[in-house]
Amino acid sequence: MLQFAPSSAGSLIALGLCFILVCVFEFANGFHDTANAVATVIYTRSLRPRTAVVWSGLMNLLGVLLGGISVAYALVELLPPDVLTPPNGNPAVPMLVALFGTALAWNLLTWWFGIPNSSSHCTIGALIGVAIGDSFLHARDLGHSVDWGQITKVLRALAISPLLGFFLAGIAYLLIRACVKLPALYTPPSENDKPHPVVRALLILTCTSVSFSHGSNDGQKSIGLIMLTIIGLIPASFAMNPGHTLDRPQLAVLANDARPLIDRYDRYSFRPDALASIDRLGNPAAAATPSEVRGDVYEILSGVRDVGANPAASGAEKAKAKTIAAQLRPCVEYAPFWVRVLSALCLGIGTMIGYRRIVTTLGEGIGKQHLTPAQGAASEIVGAGLIATAGYTGLPVSTTHIITSGVAGTMVAAGSGINMRTLGKIALAWVTTLPATITVSAILFYVLA
């Protein structure tokens, strides 16, 4: 599949397939992640299901439009530069099929069993698998071809956020119980009774906040995946940001500024490739396609990112590396408006069709007693805060893990007890997702490539 030439019939067919895969994956993402945002408001009958998912979809769209793209490209940078933009300019079909095929299959499998699994984990595992498969394809040492620093940074955020969700949601529930004496907040919903107006308003507010924050974080992941598709398959049109202000000579100046930093710290794997890219950008006689320039920019970004992570680098050197990276990124990291809208639409439509299984699990499966409005509100308030914070700091987190761990925390705080069978299923999915998706994606990429 690496032999597909740009604009060939095979490339166009692959483009259509990958576009379908990425849209279906985001559609399935709506089953899992966005369903968490509407679970409480639907379970307590504060809003009708159709109204809830439409409102959540609108808030997701707003979050996607206002949330930036830092999370999107934090995931993209998990891939080696030569996978993002193959040096020969061929479409990155094996990477896209391995990525979307693996993540989609795992998402659908866990959804079928009603397990709130993390689409973020699926995506990150598949990305790591592609990077590892690329190492085997080129017979390179894993320690010198996979950006473990970037991977560690992303995984650390995924690991810490559920723990914060558990403890902070438990504390938030205790504070609500101590300050608000409204009995309706602490009574599981009844099929015959309408929710109290205060309860209804509170849960609509928390649903709104989680939906918006989900769009600002998970919606960005969707943007990153769609951009991977269009850049990987039509690099001539989308490899470089058409709105960027830096021309080739200006890129060469920035590249030369990065040379002494990258050259000094030679224990990192990206140094030789980054230095070669600096030479190419600085050679005015060297003709380069947009895809090749993009590849060179990513090689340099990998090099300066390693400088920033090197404990031997001084504070001034790290600051200079960060500045150079900030000036280079807008050339290759961008998202057209239509990509943001497509991301939000896929998430919203998926929520409308597949929310029921996850809503039932969150409402009735995590605790030994059914979820109360106060528990739902506490978990969603904390979840919205954590997700929004991560979205604006450029760290990807799992909406599913934060909300489910928050619900579990409120169950413990209320003395309701936890359903260990359901929790065991969620924990099993949490533990096995990364190894499974890494393995499948690495094998699939290697075989296809």
From TrEMBL:
GO biological process: phosphate ion transmembrane transport
Keyword line: Cell membrane, Membrane, Phosphate transport, Symport, Transmembrane, Transmembrane helix, Transport
Catalytic activities: phosphate(in) + H(+)(in) = phosphate(out) + H(+)(out)
Primary location class: membrane
One MF term in the entry's GO annotations: phosphate transmembrane transporter activity
Transmembrane segments: 12-31, 52-75, 95-115, 122-139, 154-176, 426-448
Family, per entry: Belongs to the inorganic phosphate transporter (PiT) (TC 2.A.20) family. Pit subfamily.
Protein's name in the database: Phosphate transporter
Source organism of this protein record: Ameyamaea chiangmaiensis
